[in-house]
Amino acid sequence: VNGNPIVTKYEYQNGIVQTKGRGILGFERKVAKCFVNNECVRTQVDEYEYNTMGRYCILLPSSVKVYYGNNQLIKEIKSTYKNFICNANTKVVTPLLVGSSEMEYDYDKQGCIRKNTIVKYDYRSDNGDDDSYDSFVQMIKIATGYTDDISVKNVHDCYYQEETTTEFNNDIDKWLINRPALIKNVVSSKDNPKIGSVETFVYGNNNK
């Protein structure tokens, strides 16, 4: 900027190592500071957690905080996960993102929230179980809510939009008239000014 370099410095804290073969699993905290003309203009703090997978597995991103300068919070992202266990091998565990929230704060009014975006993800395993799967787990619904209230935690307690996906794995060659291979349904909340729903149908090819 104006002939001066932009410098980013990184700090890593609380490294976790599995000494029986897996090696470095990650760091619980990473800090990145961006400097312009030797002045810190942006700080990002990434935090990771091992509670979902256990201390001997790779760490998962749990939160991101972005600051203007050193201490004015302008954005905060939090993530939550759920494990699905493979029935063929119970040592195989798949962590899936089930919820996230992103809060954006006003640059001019410190601590004043501008927007809170809440996202909820729903999944369905191939065997219908809520905690395990045989071959795969499919995301079937995404609900996204928008509010300026920091206390709102439930996506359905604010303006929200849902997108539901339904897939059919039947052999469509056996159908005289093709059955939809995929249906997407997008619905808005009743209080949202954009009232209504949209359904998208995707058909497979039937050459017979």
Q: What kind of sheet is the major sheet?
A: 12 strands, mixed
Query: What Rg is obtained from the alpha carbons, in whole angstroms?
Result: 22 Å
Determine the number of helices (DSSP H or I, runs of at least 4 residues).
0
What is the overall silhouette? flat
**Helix proportion:** under 10%
How far from one another are the termini?
64 Å
Q: Average pLDDT across residues?
A: 84
**Unreliable parts:** none
Order of helices and strands: EEEEEEEEEEEE
Give the strand tally.
Answer: 12
> Which secondary-structure class do the elements indicate?
mainly beta
Strand content: over 45%
What's the arrangement of secondary structure elements?
Elements: E1 6-18, E2 23-36, E3 39-49, E4 60-68, E5 72-86, E6 93-105, E7 113-125, E8 132-133, E9 137-147, E10 159-167, E11 180-188, E12 197-203
Parallel strand pairs: 5-8
Antiparallel strand pairs: 1-2, 2-3, 3-4, 4-5, 5-6, 6-7, 7-9, 9-10, 10-11, 11-12
